[in-house]
Backbone:
């Protein structure tokens, strides 16, 4: 019995132990299983999220900002550059006493405190307080202890280095250069036009941080990204800063003197279309933000105007191309006549003519003569000529905001339209279009495309020059334009001592925006012209908008033209007639292209062959007016221009010429002349009729007879 | 019969050497990166100074300033056309 009693508890205790063990094991299994499944869940399910969290701890993201390209003038003078300064940013979530800090910042940075309070109150981790701090503002931040003596900022604030665009010459060429916003993104002008090229390439990359938070680049991919960050490309304009300054000064004085609303000056190389100066009034300083739109507008390119009498030479060119003669006379109607019931009368020409020649019509700027000529020429012919000269279409300069002007559609032309457009009313043109049209007369009939881009040359592919007028017609228009500045012409005040000046005055009535008709006392006075028989060939446009008092172009625009021409003559050493300027030293002025370099400065009595060196017969010739002086020698014929803006010429027959005659024929184009032998030219390379470009080598074999 | 060693005895030092080499290489890269960063920082500072100086120079030779200086400090005036001597590029002729 007793044994039985003793056996039962043992059995019970063993089975109890087993149960407990099983329970513990089950519990362990459950816990282990739960841990394992949790680990598996974390490892597999949240893998990406956790990996990113880890990465954030030891990796940092860097934004490599490129430097914005510079804007230079044709001689490398910086017109727009960069400087680095500090901007103040905040992390509002880390700022404790927002109100006090806002008040201090407001005092130091001159920002309304309420604005700062609301900015710091935003639930953000980043907010700009002020961009591009000045040195004075930094000093004030230190004074108000926002920056302590060690240079550390208050909690939640930090300084960020940023690049800022600056225009070292202030107002100079401001309308052309344009401006950028606070992030250095182009807003206007060349800054906007060339923004993509100048801004460079921003690269975002990640680097591993060390214990102190310093970035380290230890993988090849990061280094590759780092090298991919590219600074912006610098742009060189065709503008000449010195001439630009002179043009702006003369324009400012003229506008002030005339009490005018504004004005414009454009100076262009007639041969290759390079704009050398482009001035507008009123002007503005791109360094100062908040200038009015009216001041910022580049009127010379983006505003249209009715040209008035400066359109008459275009009409003359059209007439000459259609068989009219310069000496041909048209009935002057004794000063006034009616077309479709509207009276047309003389304006600038105070004389009343019975008969007037085409040349005289230009010289005295006869409205009646121009209207009669237009009616005689016919709408089809004149309309076609206007289109050929490029009116009604953009010049292709590429500048943002350039307008095409407006030539009324041919189908709506009435006789009155034709008569009005004959003397430059009822048509909308831009100053640049007019300038380009006048360059045709100076170029012997070739229409060039204006350009503002000097380099990189890949940016802008100019259309090749187009012949739109015969040499003869062009010469005749030139003759008429020269008469304008001669005695009895309207442009007497445009003449400059020592130069033969050709050009045309224009006094155009402006449309009154309220009535829709022509305003009685609002005019645009303009003069377009050039010095003839000098190289480089430079054409100048000047206009004064709404002059008060004397408003005739002969009184307002012509004197301004003379001032600008004087500046051009000084800047590019245009030789005065009969002068013997001296060679003194080297200058660094960028040449105006091989075909348009300033003429050789040699005394007139120096034999041309004196330039030949004894040691070498490979000679680089300098330009002069020899081609124009000596009509007997064969002439180079202009063939066009190559992609590098070099002019192409047709090789003339040189066989039988003396070296002097050869030099007279080829001078002016930097040809490399390789002559062998003495006597007359026997053999030439390239052959007659072959095309050669400025700077090419011409080989001649001379034989004595 | 002698039991064969499962790994030659020299393998261990080689492995340790390789491990140390790798760590050393890694540290060298980091050190070099710091140096590069320092030099780049210096370049940036110099570049910044150069830009500032160039800007100053540009502002100093601004035509407007030069004209003002010429007129006020040196009492100069605009020359007449016959007073101007044109300088021509000298090309060794």
Residues:
């Amino acid at each position: 019995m007793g044994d039985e009693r003793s056996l039962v508890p043992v059995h019970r205790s063993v089975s109890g132990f087993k149960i407990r063990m099983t329970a513990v094991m089950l519990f362990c299994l459950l816990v282990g299983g739960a841990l394992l499944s949790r680990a598996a869940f974390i490892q597999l399910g949240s893998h990406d999220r956790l990996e990113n969290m880890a990465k954030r701890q030891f990796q940092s993201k860097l934004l490599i900002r490129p430097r914005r390209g510079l804007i230079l003038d044709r001689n490398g003078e910086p017109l727009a550059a960069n400087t680095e300064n500090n901007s103040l940013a905040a992390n509002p979530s880390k700022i404790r006493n927002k109100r006090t800090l806002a008040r201090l910042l407001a005092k130091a940075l001159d920002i309304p405190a309420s604005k700062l309070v609301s900015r710091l109150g935003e639930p953000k981790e980043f907010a700009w307080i002020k961009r591009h701090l000045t040195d004075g503002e930094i000093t004030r931040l230190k004074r108000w202890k926002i920056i302590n003596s060690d240079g550390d900022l208050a909690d939640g604030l930090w300084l960020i280095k940023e690049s800022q665009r600056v225009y070292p010459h202030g107002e100079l060429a401001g309308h052309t250069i344009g401006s950028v916003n606070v992030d250095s993104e182009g807003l206007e002008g060349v800054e906007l036009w060339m923004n993509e090229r100048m801004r460079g390439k921003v690269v975002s990359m990640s680097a591993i941080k060390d214990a102190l938070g310093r970035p380290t680049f230890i993988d090849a991919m990061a280094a590759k990204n780092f090298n991919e960050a590219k600074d912006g490309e610098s742009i060189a304009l065709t503008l000449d800063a010195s001439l630009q300054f002179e043009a702006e000064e003369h324009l400012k004085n003229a506008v002030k003197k005339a009490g005018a609303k504004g004005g414009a000056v454009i100076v262009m190389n007639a041969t290759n279309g390079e704009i050398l100066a482009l001035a507008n009034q009123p002007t503005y300083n791109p360094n100062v933000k908040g200038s009015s739109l009216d001041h910022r507008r580049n009127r010379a390119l983006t505003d249209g105007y009715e040209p008035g009498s400066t359109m008459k030479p275009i009409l003359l060119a059209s007439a000459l191309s259609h068989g009219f003669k310069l000496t041909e006379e048209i009935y002057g109607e004794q000063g006034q006549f009616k077309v479709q019931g509207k009276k047309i009368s003389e304006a600038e020409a105070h004389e009343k003519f019975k008969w007037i020649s085409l040349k005289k019509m230009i010289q005295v700027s006869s409205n009646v003569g121009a209207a009669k000529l237009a009616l005689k020429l016919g709408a089809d012919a004149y309309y076609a000529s206007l289109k050929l000269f490029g009116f009604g279409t953009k010049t292709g300069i590429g500048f943002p905001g350039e307008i095409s002007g407006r030539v009324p559609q041919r189908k709506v032309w009435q006789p009155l339209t034709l008569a009005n457009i004959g003397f430059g009313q009822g048509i909308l043109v831009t100053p640049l279009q007019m300038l380009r049209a006048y360059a045709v007369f100076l170029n012997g009939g070739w229409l060039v495309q204006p350009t503002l881009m000097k380099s990189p040359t890949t940016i802008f592919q100019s259309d090749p020059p187009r012949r739109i007028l015969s040499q003869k017609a062009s010469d005749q228009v030139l003759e008429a334009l020269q008469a304008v500045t001669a005695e009895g012409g309207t442009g007497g005040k445009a003449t400059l001592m020592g130069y033969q000046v050709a050009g045309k005055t224009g006094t155009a009535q402006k449309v009154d925006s309220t009535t829709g008709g022509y305003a009685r006392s609002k005019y645009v006075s303009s003069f377009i012209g050039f010095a003839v028989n000098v190289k480089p060939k430079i054409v100048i446009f000047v206009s004064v908008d709404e002059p008060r008092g004397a408003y005739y172009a002969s009184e307002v625009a012509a004197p301004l033209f003379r001032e600008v021409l004087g500046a051009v003559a000084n800047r590019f050493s245009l030789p005065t007639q009969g002068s013997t300027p001296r060679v003194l030293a080297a200058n660094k002025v960028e040449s105006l292209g091989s075909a348009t370099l300033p003429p050789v400065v040699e005394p007139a009595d120096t034999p041309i062959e004196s330039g030949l060196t004894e040691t070498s017969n490979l000679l680089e010739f300098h330009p002069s007016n020899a081609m124009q002086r000596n009509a007997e020698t064969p002439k180079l014929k202009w063939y066009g221009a190559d992609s590098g803006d070099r002019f192409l010429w047709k090789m003339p027959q040189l066989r039988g010429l003396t070296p002097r005659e050869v030099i007279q024929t080829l001078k002016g184009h930097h040809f490399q002349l390789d002559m062998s032998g003495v006597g007359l030219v026997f053999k030439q390379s390239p052959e007659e009729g072959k095309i050669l470009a400025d700077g090419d080598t011409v080989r001649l074999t001379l034989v004595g007879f | 019969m002698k039991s064969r060693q499962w790994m030659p005895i020299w393998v261990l030092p080689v492995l340790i050497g390789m491990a140390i080499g790798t760590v050393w290489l890694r540290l060298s890269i980091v050190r070099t990166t710091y140096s590069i960063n320092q030099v780049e920082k210096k370049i940036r500072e110099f570049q910044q100074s150069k830009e500032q100086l160039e800007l100053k120079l540009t502002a100093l030779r601004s035509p407007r300033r030069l004209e003002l200086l010429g007129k006020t400090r040196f009492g100069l005036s605009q020359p007449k056309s016959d007073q101007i001597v044109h300088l021509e590029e000298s090309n060794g002729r």
The first helix of chain B runs from residue 11 to 60.
